[in-house]
Amino acid sequence: MKLKSIVSAAALLAVLGTAAPAWAQDDAFTPVTDEMLSAPADGDWLLWRRALDSWGYSPLEEINRDTVSDLTLAWGWSMEPGWQETAPIVYDGVMYLANPDGIAQALDAVTGDLLWEYRREMPEGFRPGMMSRGLAIYGDKVFFATPDAGLVALDAVTGQVVWETDVAGEGKTVTAAPVIADGKVIVGYMGCFGFVADKCGVAAFDTETGDEAWRTITVSDAPEGEDTWGGMPYVLRGGGDIWTSASYDPEADLVYIGSSQAKPWARVSRGQDDASLYTSSTLALDPETGEIEWFRQYIPGETNDMDEAFEHILVDIDGEPSYVNMGKLAILWRGNRETGEPYPAFDLGWQDQIDITDEGTFANYREGKIAELGEPITMCPSTTGFRSWRSLAYSPQTRAVYIPMSINCDTGMTYGEVEMVEGGGGNGQVGSTRAIHPDSPDNIGRFVAMSIDTGEVLWENPSRSPANTAMLTTAGGLVFGGDWDRHMYAWDEETGEVLWETRLPQAAQGYPIAYAVDGKQYVAVPVGVGGYSWSSSVPSQLTPEIKRPSSGNAVLVFALPDRG
Fold it and tell me: Is 526 within 8 Å of 505 (Cβ atoms)?
């Protein structure tokens, strides 16, 4: 068990003789159910992308095309320093917020007042300021996966620790928000840069006790001769990190999560060009056992760090239960979520590395895109990707996904030899040179609306600096997103017209959400710095004239003015 420090607002107020908030006194807390996670109340945002389908869509419409121009700041809350990519959740008027460095807070969602706080005592020598992308809520508990690969269940009303456990061992970390499925907390973990026997994977824990229910490792342990790792011993099979959150379909009873690339990144550094399962894949898991019911590997033997490890948006396509997802290459992959059968895919046309078949599967690498030792290659995108952790959002009104992008390339990507010994490993990268994309010489950022049915680009808005938030869609016909240059926008979801814009004190960074309390709608926008987003390297190299502060993590909450 890890040590911890708790600050409970209710307990502190009791000591001081001051009344605690009414909701903390009257036992009025209503436990969150499975049904709520599938279909939250309109004003709630219960998981990192609001609901189990990962749409990033709010059914609220008080803030709409006609009213959004009146948005104003309602309140703000400064967050702890460190790497910030948080996804707030809101339930019954309370915002739960993951901060860097293993800190979780509960805030009054109307005023921003602190209700309680949990501070984890991190292990000695652990890198300070490490991020957590969010929390989950279920029953009467808030679940916090901490950067040092711990998992803590907190009483939703008081913040007191109910139970805590380890997700993974030393050297591993968790960045993704947990998700709830079948009464279990599902969380993936990362830290598989080197050659060790303890691989990365996905683990499930009982929500009531914290007992481990199952663990699925993302690197195949098939023996030599039957494996897909070129005969490599198990200990020399690297990668398969999990660093985004799962989606869950209760009807199909499957959990969907993406695994990252093999390590070292390049085939030439790995010394083999086999598929290397189960890297760069979607895994469909049985929530009861963790068994892989089906998997889909997007680029067998991927060789340029082009992760396909991001969110899965669960939708119906042509009446069939389906999913869409998009990785660094900005190809919208589609498939049947019950069987994994691929559907035709849609390439936004910015990448220059692979070809895909008419059926929507990998065909081949293009000439010159598979590296040789020490020989630089040019590739678009760079290893930062055209998109990364910044999630797409889906609107059921337009049947489009809204994509935040960073359009850039690499003109000097070079890989080196990696010694294949236990305890060794690494990425194999020895050099890279970020570059402007030749088809977008003036703008790195792009916000794109794309039909999930046809692949048609409905609209796109360029920006000088990279898109730097997840996207948010609402029933008010709006799409929200922000950039590295401190702008936050609201667009008309159909036309892309900018209907509202504001300049923030720090770069928009994290997962915007919409929620309501007592019928009043709010939009919360995290701002901040750092993280596994390469959010500084691309703009600092390619748009050096754009500056942002070096600190200033916060959540800023906007609303319409009260009408007297």
Answer: no
Query: Hey, what's the torsion of the CAs at 461, 437, 457, 483, to 10 degrees?
Result: -30
CB 380 within 8 A of CB 459: no
CB neighbours (10 Å) of residue 66? 10
> Collapsing DSSP states into helix, strand and coil, what is residue 363?
strand
Gyration radius from the chain CA atoms: 22
Both structure tokens of 435: 């570059």
Determine contact, residues 74/558, Cβ cutoff 8 Å: yes
Number of H helices, E strands in the chain: 5, 42
* Collapsed DSSP state (helix, strand, coil) of residue 322: strand
Cα separation, 147 vs 85, in Å, equals 13
Range list of β-strands (E), 197-273:
201-206, 212-217, 238-239, 247-249, 254-259, 262-263
User: Which residue shows structure tokens 């019928």?
Assistant: 519
Nearest alpha-carbon partner for 247 in 39, 51, 392, 394: 51
Predicted structure pTM score: 0.95
- Token output for 276: 């290397």
> 271 pLDDT exceeds 80?
yes
> Which token pair is 250?
């209760």
pLDDT band at 532 (very low <50, low <70, confident <90, very high): low
